[in-house]
Write a sequence for this structure.
């Protein structure tokens, strides 16, 4: 059992969902694994229903299907969160996921329809929502490069309850990117998401975020902890989070797609 009860995706996809077959997601539903500001439900709701998160510089159009997630589950994914480039939404460094780095990364998985995931992915890639995604490549290979941009590489991190766990990141490795200090408003959203989704204490959240590449040496844990404020309670109205159990990768995620 992982610390705090977070789950890890199934290591062997055959045990969780039968043989891996290229094609649409089973049952038309997928898990979207958020690992940065979208761990905070209020912020993620702007991707679904449209809106502008407090402190952000961008208004999101929302999804064709604006319903809230069916479920939300805390996860631990293999790899590491790091901050690089500059966020057009928050300024400061953006959060990215390197699945080949050592360690484990806390995330929050939302159960969505395949259409909702396609619209969320489009907004992450700064594209207009409205077109479905062909998931055959990522389901078969574990990785699909949809473009050269910062969130245009689609990963299958594993399988959970027989459904694929999908997320988005950059095509490069952490070591290839220049680390960048994240903005206070961005870290506040990540901190809230970790509190909501994983139930971590402010001290644990601060230690984790202040130690990520890009934040390390630029943020002190005490300063990150101050961003959360005094109220340790999770925000009301979040979908029920299940027990946090490890989510193992279906298999080793391949390296960069040429």
């Amino acid at each position: 059992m992982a610390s705090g009860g977070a789950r890890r995706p199934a290591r062997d996809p055959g045990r969780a969902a039968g043989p891996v077959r290229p094609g649409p997601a089973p049952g038309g539903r997928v898990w979207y694994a958020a690992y940065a500001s979208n761990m905070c439900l209020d912020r993620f709701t702007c991707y679904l229903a449209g809106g502008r998160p407090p402190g952000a510089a961008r208004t999101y159009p929302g999804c064709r299907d604006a319903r809230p997630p069916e479920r939300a589950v805390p996860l631990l994914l293999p790899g590491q969160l790091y901050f690089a480039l500059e966020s057009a939404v928050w300024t400061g460094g953006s959060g990215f996921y390197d699945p080949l780095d050592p360690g484990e990364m806390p995330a929050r998985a939302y159960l969505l329809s395949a259409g909702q995931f396609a619209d969320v992915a489009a907004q992450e890639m700064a594209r207009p929502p409205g077109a479905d995604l062909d998931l055959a490549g990522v389901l078969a290979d574990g990785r699909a490069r949809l473009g050269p941009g910062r969130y245009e590489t689609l990963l299958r991190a594993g399988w959970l309850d027989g459904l694929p766990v999908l997320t988005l990141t950059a095509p490069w490795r952490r070591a290839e990117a220049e680390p960048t200090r994240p903005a206070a408003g961005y870290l506040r959203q990540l901190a809230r998401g970790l509190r909501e989704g994983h139930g971590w204490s402010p001290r644990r959240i601060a230690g984790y975020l202040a130690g990520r590449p890009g934040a390390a040496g630029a943020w002190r844990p005490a300063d990150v902890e101050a961003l959360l404020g005094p109220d340790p309670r999770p925000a009301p109205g979040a979908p029920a989070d299940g027990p946090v159990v490890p989510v193992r990768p279906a298999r080793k995620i391949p390296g960069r797609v040429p």
Remarks:
- The chain has one domain: 3-13+24-228.
- Helices lie at 13-17, 41-49, 114-124, 136-141, 184-198, 202-210, 221-228.
- The first strand starts at residue 29 and ends at 34.
